Amino acid sequence: MPRTTAGPQLPLDVRHRDGAGQPDADLVAGVLDALPSPTVLIDPDGTILLVNSAWAASGDLLEDDRLEVGVGGNYFEVMLSLSDDAVNHERIEQLRALSQGLRKRVSADYALSTVTGVRWFHLQASRADESGRVVVTHTDVTSRVEAEQASAWQARHDHLTDLPNRAHLHELINSELRRDREPVTVLFLDVDGFKDVNDTLGHEVGDGLLRELAGRLSSHTRGEDTVGRLGGDEFVVLCRNCDVDGALALAERFQATFDEPFQLGERNTRLTVSIGVATAPGGNSDVRSTDLVRDADLAMYAAKSAGRNRVRVFSPDLRSAVEQRVLVAAELREAIDAGQLVLHYQPVMHLPTGEVSGVEALVRWQHPERGLVMPCDFIPLAEQNGIVVPLTRWVLGEATRQTVAWEQLGLTLVTGVNISAAHFGTGTLVADVHDALTAAELAPERLVLELTETSVAEDPLRAAAQFAQLRISGVEVSIDDFGSGFSSLSQLVSIPAGVLKLDRSLVAGTETRRSESAAAIAAVVGLATACGMRSLAEGVETADQLDLVRELGCTYAQGFHIARPMPAAELPGWLARRPSPAGRRASTAHLQSA
Q1: What is the pTM of this model?
Q2: pLDDT below 50 — which residues of the chain?
Q3: CATH 3.20.20.450 domain residues, the chain
Q4: Which helix (H) or strand (E) holds 195?
Q5: Closest-CA residue to 260 (of 270, 273, 249)
Q6: How far is CA 276 from the centre of its chain?
Q7: Which CATH number fits domain 157-314: 3.30.70.270, 3.30.1360.30, 3.40.50.2300, 3.30.2320.30?
Q8: Does domain 25-147 bear CATH number 3.30.450.20?
Q9: What is the pLDDT of residue 581?
Q10: pLDDT for position 22
Q11: For residue 420, how many other CB atoms are within 10 A of its CB?
C-alpha cells in the first residue's frame, strides 16, 4: 500500500453528470470513501485519479516511509516498487486488459510485508466506465488466509508430534523420487515394547513418549532429512541424497538416542528401536513412495523377528517371503472347506496310574503339492490373517466327533484343543464350543481347552470370564506353556483353570541343569497344587525325564518318549500294543480291528 497524506481526493477532470448534466464529483468521492477497504480509481495508464480514506490510512502499515503516492501518482509504479517480480508484471498486464474491456475482472490474493508482519490482501478490480477507468479494492483477508494455511498445515502434519503425517510423507518421498539426483533412502522405525508402555502406564504417558521420540529423532537427522510419523509408534525418516551406507550410519545414530532412559511417569525406562532401511535410485519414475515405505517396513519386521533392537536392509527375498505368506494364507482359507486339514493326536499319560487318559489334538495341513505342513508353518499366518477362528471351529468340530467315535469303540479319552487368543476377542468362543459339543453329542467333561500363558496374559479379565462359563458347563480349561511368559500370580489365581501345563523348556533343562530345572518344576507343581490345579509336563522325551516329573508330583505328562502325535486311525492300535501299567497287555484286542 502507498503512503499518502491525503484523504479522499478527486482531480478536476473526474466528473459524472446526472440527468441535468450537473457535475456529481462529490458523490463519487463519497461513495468511494464509504468503502471500508483501501480503494483507488485509476485510468488506463495507471494514473491514480481518486483514493479513499482507507487507502490513505493503510500507508501507515508500510515499512518504507519514503513511499508516498496519492492522486496523480502511478498505481503500476506503486505495485512494482513494492515487489518488482513476474507476478506483479503479469497483474499489471491484466489490469491493462481489464481497462481495454478484454476481461471482466481481475482478482488475486497477495502477501504484503508490513510493520506488523506479513498481511494478506485480496485485490479485486472492475472496469468503472467506457473510458477505461478501473476501480481497485484491497481487502484485508489475513485472518482467512491464516486459517486456511493452518488447516492445510494440520492436514499434512501429525497432531501429536507436529511431524509430517503419512500423506505428506508420501508427497515428499514421491517428489524426491522424481528428481534426477542421488539415491533416496527411507528408514522405518518401530519402538520395541511401545504397547507395553500404553498398557501399563496409560495412553497419556505413551503420547508423551511419542513427543519426546519425535524431538530426539529430529535432533539427530541431517539438515536435508525429514522425520515423519506414520501412526502409533511408527516413524519414517526420508533421507535425501543418501545411499545404504549413509542410512546405516544414520540408523546407528537413532539407536544411540535410545541409550538415554525415557522419563515415563515417575520412573526412567529404557527402550529400544527396530529399524528397516530401503533405498531407491533418484529419478526412477517406476518406484513409488508406497513401494519404498513398504520395503522399509518389511525390513523393519525382519529386524524385529531377528530379536529387536536391530537394523535390517531390504532385500527382494523379504518381499518374496511376504508374497509367499499371502499365497499360503489364501490357500489356507480354501483348505478348510476343501478337507485338506487333518488332526493328529498325542497321547497324555496320567502319571499316578500310568494310564493314557487323554490326547491333545494337533492340526496338520495335507497340502496337495507341499505334502504334510506342520502347524508352526501356517498357524501364525492364520492368526495374522483372521483365519484362526474358522480354523479353530473346524478343529473343535473334528476333535469332538473323533472323541465320540473312540467312545463308540469303548475307548474313553479326554481330548485337548488349543485355542488362540484371537478367539477371545470375537466373543464367540463359548458358543462355538457349545455348538461343537452339541453337534457331536459329546459330554463337556470329555473336552479340554488349552490357551497359552502369554495369550491369557494379554486379556486376563476376558479370559477369566469365558473360562468361567466353560467350566460351569463342564468343559475343562488348561493354561499351556506355563513358564514361558511372565504372568503374575494374581492373574494365575484369578483364571478359573483346572490344569497347568509346564512349558517344555523346563523339562528339557533337566538334561543339562538337572537340579535347577527340577527345582523350577517342583515350584510350578506346588503353585498348581496351591491354586487347586493339576499339572501336566509336556516335552517329555526321555525315561529319566518321565521318572523325574512323576517324582516331582506332576499329574500328567506327554512327549515323544510316551508317544508322538499320530493320525486318529492309529491310536487304537497303539493303545492295544502298549503294555499295561502292571506289565500286562491291556485287553484291547477288539480295538485292533478298528
Answers
A1: 0.59
A2: 2-23, 66, 486, 583-594
A3: 344-367+385-583
A4: helix 194-201
A5: 270
A6: 15
A7: 3.30.70.270
A8: yes
A9: 66
A10: 41
A11: 19
